[in-house]
């Protein structure tokens, strides 16, 4: 049943929607993800600014990267190569580059339509821009349910499976023991809230990412002369020109799109939930910053994993090995057995922050359609159960379950973003106009968007105080 649903969703719908809409957003926006690529780093000059109790733009970015960087970068890339050949990596790059535009628009819209909570914090995401932008609360509820199932249940099962497999391969730890340990840790911290998650992510994400990147660069540097041939293999395989993968172009595209979306989440509707809680002067600023996280995740980190596997010499077409185990074996083949331990520890840290991030997204989605305490308690119990369940399942089951829920969520979110695309363009042009006028930090004036269902408390609070008549004189 899972296989039939996956075939329908991915082979018939999502490949066209992800790449097609990504290209549409890219072209109609004047290649916004490339036009503002340099500005991403300029924006960081203001990314740490925030009011007490709010998340800064940088914290929201780190929280988003914390959620994206995990099993998808280490195990997902391995699965893509094993099932789709090296050419799957090329299609992961394509999904990421056009997905940067998709992520930009969905995160900008999430900022635009976010709401201020009674405690002063912000909430937003696909459900909010669907309700307040399209006026379809029922669809917002459907998206919230899919988000809860995908991240709270499906992705958490994948993460726990990956780390349990890794620890079993490296240290011989029984998978059920790893699952129990993970459930105890998650149960102990899921009551901390978004600020505590952001505090952990601020420290752990940069350390994790740079440590893994350093290891990858060492492995790549050790096989520097083989890099041109490896890239040639990726490109030939992507179009079925490599003899070992002739006729496999369909599998390469399918696995590249699947694992690319699983890793960078562009268009999936997850990052907007985090982007919305940041405090910024203009929604587009956060959209630009969030598109950078797609680049970091796929173009940099996923490429590193792919090169580690392909340069190590351990990969053979048709091999059957658990995703994370292939990555560990590849690192160990270059640097020795301590590399296997390094990957396990890095993955454990990646999964730790990702599990918390996934939990937060699920609870945030739940809060859209109910404020009662009991559903939250039940949700937390189910999260703990699914983490334990995922640790003792097989690779095919956990990925198939996650692919179905992820695919349905992506379809619903992409339709909403497409319907709100004109609003996104209008928002982008407002930002562009201010940049051309020499304004270093554009500010959203809510009066320019008075026809939209915005929360006045959000943007009034971010606007500079208006000088009174005396000051003007």
Helix content range: over 70%
The average pLDDT value, as a whole number, equals 82
H/E series: HHHHHHEEHHHHHHHHHHHHHHH
**Beta-strand percentage?**
under 5%
Query: Whole-Å distance between the termini?
Result: 73 Å
User: What order do the strands of the largest sheet run in, or round the barrel if closed?
Assistant: 1-2
Class from helix and strand fractions: mainly alpha
Detail the poorly predicted runs.
Answer: 466-473
Which word captures the global form? globular
What is the CATH top level name? Mainly Alpha
- How is the quaternary structure best described? single chain
Give the count of helical stretches.
Answer: 21
Largest sheet: 2 strands, antiparallel
Produce the secondary structure layout:
Elements: H1 2-28, H2 32-35, H3 37-43, H4 57-68, H5 71-84, H6 87-112, E1 115-116, E2 122-123, H7 126-134, H8 137-171, H9 175-189, H10 193-222, H11 227-238, H12 249-264, H13 271-275, H14 283-312, H15 323-335, H16 338-369, H17 373-391, H18 395-419, H19 421-436, H20 456-462, H21 469-472
Antiparallel strand pairs: 1-2
Helix pairs in contact: 1-6, 1-12, 1-18, 3-14, 4-10, 4-14, 4-16, 5-12, 5-14, 5-15, 6-11, 6-12, 6-14, 6-19, 7-8, 7-18, 8-9, 8-15, 8-16, 8-17, 8-18, 9-17, 10-14, 10-16, 14-15, 15-16, 16-17
């Amino acid at each position: 049943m899972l296989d039939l649903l996956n075939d329908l969703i991915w082979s018939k719908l999502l490949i066209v929607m992800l790449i097609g809409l990504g290209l549409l957003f890219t072209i109609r926006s004047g290649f916004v993800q490339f036009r503002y690529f340099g500005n991403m780093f300029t924006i960081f000059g203001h990314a740490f600014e925030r009011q007490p109790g709010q998340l800064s733009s940088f914290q929201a970015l780190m929280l988003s990267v914390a959620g994206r960087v995990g099993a998808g970068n280490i195990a997902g890339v391995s699965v893509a190569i094993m099932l789709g050949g090296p050419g799957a990596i090329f299609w992961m790059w394509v999904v990421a580059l056009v997905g940067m535009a998709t992520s930009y628009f969905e995160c900008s819209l999430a900022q635009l339509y976010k709401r201020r909570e009674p405690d002063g914090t912000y909430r937003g995401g696909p459900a909010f821009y669907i309700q307040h932008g399209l006026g379809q609360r029922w669809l917002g509820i459907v998206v919230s349910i899919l988000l809860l199932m995908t991240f709270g249940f499906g992705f958490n099962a994948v993460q726990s499976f990956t780390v349990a497999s890794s620890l079993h391969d490296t240290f011989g730890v029984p998978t059920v023991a790893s699952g129990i340990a993970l459930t105890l840790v998650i149960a102990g911290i899921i009551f901390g809230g978004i600020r505590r998650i952001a505090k952990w992510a601020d420290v752990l994400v940069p350390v994790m990412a740079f440590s893994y990147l350093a290891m990858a660069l060492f492995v790549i540097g050790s096989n520097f002369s083989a890099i041109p041939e490896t890239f040639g293999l990726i490109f030939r395989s992507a179009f079925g020109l490599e003899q070992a993968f002739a006729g496999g172009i369909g599998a390469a595209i399918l696995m590249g799109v699947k694992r690319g979306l699983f890793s960078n989440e562009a268009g999936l509707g997850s990052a907007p939930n985090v982007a919305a809680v940041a405090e910024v002067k203009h929604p587009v600023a956060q959209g630009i910053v969030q598109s950078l996280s797609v680049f970091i995740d796929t173009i940099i980190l996923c490429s590193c994993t792919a090169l580690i596997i392909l340069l190590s010499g351990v990969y053979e077409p048709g091999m059957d090995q658990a995703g994370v185990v292939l990555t560990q074996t590849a690192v160990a083949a270059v640097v020795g057995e301590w590399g296997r331990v390094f990957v396990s520890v890095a993955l454990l840290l990646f999964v730790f922050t990702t599990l918390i991030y996934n939990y937060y997204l699920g609870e945030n989605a739940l809060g859209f359609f109910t404020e009662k305490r009991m559903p939250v308690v039940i949700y937390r119990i189910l999260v703990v159960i699914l983490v334990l369940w995922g640790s003792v399942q097989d690779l095919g089951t956990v990925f198939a379950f996650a692919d179905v829920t992820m695919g349905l969520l992506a379809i619903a979110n992409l339709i909403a973003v497409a319907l709100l695309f004109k609003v996104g363009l209008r928002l982008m042009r407002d930002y562009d106009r201010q940049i051309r006028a020499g304004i270093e930090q554009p500010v959203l004036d809510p009066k320019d968007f008075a026809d939209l269902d915005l929360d006045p408390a959000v943007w009034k609070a971010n606007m500079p105080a208006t000088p009174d008549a005396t000051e003007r004189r």
